[in-house]
Amino acid sequence: MQLILGHNQFIGISHISEEKSREKERQFSKVENIYRIVENASDLGYKNMIIETHPKMLEFINYYEKNQTFDMDFYLQVPYVQGYIQKVNEKGIQGFALDTIKQSGFIQTGHIALKGALGVLMQDYSSIAFSILKLEISPFTKVNIKAVMLHNVMTDLLLSLDAKDAFSDFISNIKKLGLNYGFVTLNFPLLAHRFQDWELTSPLVMTPVNPRGFDMNPSITIVSEALRQHKGDLIAMNILGGGAFPLQESKAFLDSFENIKYCVIGASSYNHLRENKEIFG
Amino acid sequence: MDTLHVAVIGAGKMGLLHAGIFNSLENSKLTAISEKDEMILRFGKKYLPKVHFYEDYEKMFNAENIDIVAITTPVFLHHSMIEKAIDHDLNIFVEKPLSINGKECRSILSRNFKGKSQVGYCRRFMGTYSFVKEILSKSLLGKVNYFDSRIFVGWVFAPGKGWQYDPKKSGGGALIDLGSHAMDMFHYLFGDIASVQANARNVFNKNVEDYVSVNLTLLNNIIGSLQISWSIKNYRMPELKIDIYCDYGKITVTEKYVEIFSDIHHNSIKKGWNIFYKQDITPEVTVNLAGPEYTLEDQNLVDAIINDTVPMCNFHEAGKASYAVDAVYASINCNSVEKVLYGV
């Protein structure tokens, strides 16, 4: 099993408790502390890491590029949903689009002219959306990106709404950047079913796989069956339920899937990294 | 059973979330969306060709054959939209709070409404809180005597723009936005509230409160306290944490875990410390878009329509949180102990 170092702990996300989230946020408030753990992971043989386009992860990528004492490949999760929601709440959707394009230097004009330009661009709203996405990905392309993964909130929303063309457009836009694509989902059977209906090829998918069925919808049995039939690459996530499940129980469950070659592991210390490597690696 | 046709008013993040869920449940399907924002309309028309889009929800009501309407607009629009939906004999889902104040809730409840209703107090459908509800309902730790609670998030640290910060449109600040969740949870877990005494501070916003402190006395003599704020650093997501002190132990519940210290042994609860994570006590759902609780609340409404049962958080039930919020605002404004006035 190839291990992919997860990044939730570095940006203060814990499935266990908000106290744990804040503890991690404190531990990794300095980018050097993130770098040290990723370096430890590299020393132990971890070759891949998943990150999202969170400001903290951009800080880490910049630090990594500057210091680069080890090699690591990255899976990049987009978009930074939480950040977008906050900005849209503050400024409205048009204000958010306007600000993002303005900040990017995409259109070098004054505010009024910019509004006019936006009005023209609005005729093709999807091109704005993908321009924003491209701007989001751009600062991360200085490192080796193995695939751009669409965040589960977006993937699952678009799957539930049966938005085939949104997937086709995402795929073609990521390909235009010369990058591979993939999807994160909490609803794997729905994804498999839709992609078959839409006659899209089996993509790279990252999805929860754990012995308690946490975030495996609609049920552990149906998800397990669909996973075994999947022809594309699979990355297992939430394998330990954020620390709620015993390692050995999760390991035994994961081993029952011959076609899962990658799994995401979150760790905050050398010993934790080593223990996970010994069991899952 | 025929498929229930669903229309959504307001295609913001909550509107799209419920649109996706209703479109994925076995017995319901998204038919139409009403939205005023031109960019969202264009986006929707391009990517959701099977869905009918409208700028005017009343035109949508007239043109479409709808069974359920999901209202996910700013709160000041809820009352008039609910009234129109009742006129069209629709079943109604509305995001929390039911309306901007208790007066509007009473107006809604005074209507001769025959349909089913559900208000989006989603914590009722989270595994952790429903687990605690079961413990309390069975009195496994004896009766509840006291609770201490807080609902915090780190959202607001500067003057905000938009309807949320205009009390005429939002009804208020952190109290009605976050505190209404806590008030609903108290009704769900403990019962009706007799009186409240509260203080508030407007720090970042001139017109709406950022911090609120409330003492509560319930009709069943339970006493408790609630701290509310949307301006607490390092709270990435809203957290409602309640410490509940019972005859034979203590329960702490959040969105993510339940911790119990029990003086006595039961089948599922051992003497001493117990911890239950949401990972182990969350029910399976058909589809999970932003948390199982959203699917469960929509499923609960669909099931209620099909089986002619009462939804978990109907208008009558959800109105109670608004009456309690009204009493807290009255207490803040008058510096007094205020009774919670229930009923039409």
Describe it:
The complex is a heterodimer of chains A (281) and B (344). Chain A is α/β, with parallel strands linked by helices and 281 residues long. Chain A is 52% helix and 14% strand. Chain A has a single domain (2-160, 167-275), classed as TIM Barrel (Alpha-Beta Barrel), CATH 3.20.20. Chain A has an 8-stranded parallel barrel with strand order 1-2-3-4-5-6-7-8, surrounded by 4 helices. Chain A is globular, with a radius of gyration of 19 Å. Chain A starts with a strand and ends with a helix. Helices cover 34% and strands 25% of the residues of chain B. In chain B, the strands form 2 sheets. Chain B has a 9-stranded mixed sheet with strand order 14-13-12-11-7-10-9-8-15. In chain B, strands 3-2-1-4-5-6 form a 6-stranded parallel sheet, sandwiched between helices. Chain B folds into 2 domains: 4-121 and 290-313, Rossmann fold (3-Layer(aba) Sandwich), CATH 3.40.50.720; 124-285 and 320-339, Dihydrodipicolinate Reductase, domain 2 (2-Layer Sandwich). Chain B is of the alpha/beta class and 344 residues long. The interface between A and B is large, with 50 and 47 residues.
Summarize the structure.
The complex is a heterodimer of chains A (281) and B (344). Chain A is α/β, with parallel strands linked by helices.
**Largest interface, chains and sizes:** A-B, 50 and 47 residues
- And the CATH topology of the largest domain in chain B? Dihydrodipicolinate Reductase, domain 2
Radius of gyration of chain A: 19 Å
- Which consecutive residue ranges of chain A, at least 5 long each, have pLDDT under 50? none
> What structural class is derived from the secondary structure elements of chain B?
alpha/beta
Mean pLDDT of chain B: 96
Tell me the CATH superfamily of the largest domain in chain B: Dihydrodipicolinate Reductase, domain 2
Query: Residue share in helices of chain A?
Result: 40-55%
Number of domains of chain A: 1
The structural class of chain A is alpha/beta
Helicity level of chain B = 25-40%
Number of domains of chain B: 2
The SSE order of chain A reads EHHEHEHHHEHHEHEHEHEH
The global form of chain B is globular
Individual helix count of chain B: 11
Q: Into which percentage range does the β-strand content of chain B fall? A: 25-35%
Which oligomeric form is depicted?
Answer: heterodimer
Element order, helices and strands of chain B? EHEHEHEHEHEHEHHEEEEEEEHHHE
Annotated CATH topology of chain A: TIM Barrel
Give the radius of gyration of chain B: 20 Å
Q: How does the overall form of chain A come out from the CA principal axes?
A: globular
